[in-house]
Amino acid sequence: MIQPNDVNKIENEDWEEFKKRAVQDELYYSGPGDLLDDAAGRSKFCRLNESGMFRKPDPLYPGYNIYVFNNQGEGMVIKRRSRVDPALMEDVEFNAEGQEISRSYEPA
Prior knowledge:
Mean pLDDT is 78; it is low at 1-5 and 22-27. This protein has helices spanning 15-22, 39-48; strands at 52-57, 65-71, 75-81, 88-95, 100-107. Strands 1-2-3-4-5 form a five-stranded antiparallel β-sheet, with helices on one face. The protein is globular, with a radius of gyration of 14 Å. It is α+β, with helices and mostly antiparallel strands. It has two helices and five strands.
């Protein structure tokens, strides 16, 4: 079974084939320590995935989703239920290198 961080081991030219095999797996977010939790993983996700919205179940809040708004090669915003106050959504913006630019909150 493909593990979330296996994506960091894939060469750019093999990305499309890898995505076909990984479709049924929790590739983009499966909890702490996965692809979106470090700058290198976020950078690769941003560069290799087309611009658009990705959605995965939030393992820490069953029934809720984590949303990734990707702008290919430019940056991304990750929206998820706040870990501090579940009544809020946390919006974290990252640049193309996966570094945090800003953090904001909005009602859930």
